[in-house]
Amino acid sequence: MSATSGINALAHAVEALYAANANPLTDLMATESIRALGEGLPAVIADPQSIDARERALFGAWLSGSALAATNMGIHYKLAHVLGGTFGLNHAAVHTVLLPHAAAYNRAVAPRAMGLISKALGVDDAATGIFDLISGLGAPTALREIGLPATVLDQVASLATEKEIANPAPVTTEGVRLLLENA
For residue range 25-73, what is the model confidence (pLDDT) as tens digits? Predict the structure, then answer.
């Protein structure tokens, strides 16, 4: 629960960095949130009783919530709500599985955000670094692990693209379908 809840918070910070209405203050909150969660979550998993580790992760989660409150969310957030609301999947687990794929989806059109994420995590590539963090926490990394059958991917892609989404990369049914296949 700590791992998936923490990655749910990380997702808010990641999406805030490439939001159309991001600003220097939300960038600062989101970047520090990613740094704090990237350090705090592995420490929480290594020692669940560590107050210092939980304090670091909680600080990161608080910052991500502040960034979320001040910006729009994109494709990642939309997909998490479609999957959770339509298929009853655990909200935090859905965020956990989708996050590296949403980052990859937006990688080419949000290089500044990806650079900030990479720097905060101390990695070369944001999407890969997020996936490696999730894997290292022992959290789920595939939609099938959390109960989504592959037979509904077309339905999910259709539902997720019914309305326009504020996202840096164009949101198409085909693009979302590929993101879901990768997840």
Answer: 999 999 999 999 999 999 999 999 999 999 999 999 999 999 999 999 8
- Find the mean pLDDT for residues 64-87: 92
Q: Are 50 and 43 in contact (CB under 8 A)?
A: yes
**Domain with 40 in it:** 2-182
What is the residue whose two structure tokens read 């991500």? 64
Query: How far is residue 18's CA from residue 135's CA, in Å, rounded to a whole number?
Result: 24
Residue 123, domain CATH:
1.20.1090.10
Cα separation, 147 vs 150, in Å, equals: 10
Overall average pLDDT of the 86-92 stretch? 92
| Total count of domains within the chain | 1
Q: Which of 86, 106, 91, 85 is nearest to 179 (CA)?
A: 106
